[in-house]
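pasting for ref
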Amino acid sequence: MTITNPERRISQNSRSSKPSVARENNPIRRRGVSGWVIVGVLFFCALLMLFPFWLALINGFKPASQYMESGPLALPNSLDFSSLVSFWKGVNFNEKLLNSVLISGSVALLAVVLSLLSSFAVGIGRIKGRIWVLAIFMLGFTIPQEALVYPLFLLTRELGLYDTKLGVIIVIAVLQSAFGTYMLSSVLGSFPVEILEAAKIDGANRWRMLWSIVFPLTKPTLSVLVTFFFIWTWNEFFLPMVLLPSAGNQTVSVSLGALSGQYTSSPTALAAASLAGILPAFIFFLLFQRTLMRGVTLGAVK
């Protein structure tokens, strides 16, 4: 007859129960059916968003005869660049592309600079009436552009900035900086005060603190804003259409909207025009995708 030690039995039971507890706490096993359903729904939504781009891609290089025979969903039997070339030359797309790159890049940089300066005063400077100032900035990016277009039209005309790229850059940059200021103010509002006090003790002024301390620590968030501002400005249609009436100053989106009626009888040419307007912004997003994701991740960790 053997007598077992109760403490040893308890320890063995506890060791044997640990894997089962670990299996129960495993997030992959705990996800279950509902988690895979969510993943499937998100994948389906991603396919829906990519579907228009896919249609423009396959129909932009499809011969018109094949489109009439097989419809828009069939893959092209041969690559036909005639529709894209005719559209490119017909609207002088090189000029429109240069205008969009110049306006979008300038707006992105100017809006980020204005957002950083304003949020530094609101978030770290702690000006009086900070809540009301943030509320005004919030109204700036929530009011529809249709309500602002007439005052902006009169203002740019009185200042001699109507039908100029500089006028559109200033207007869109100020409007977008309202969102940037609101976003950065919440980030700088929780900025470590100890770092700023140490800089003051070392004799740093406000400009030195902004350039040497605040700017390096907010680079990830600023890179996210630059990417957003560039893509938003590239897709902007209403304000450039009103403030840039001449053909030499038009952007890609305005030229596509103004000339789309000419291609309603040619679906392949319309698809080629849409593809030419989508691809530059899509390439920019792919180039800065890693910077965008790193900025979002670092901002969340901080």
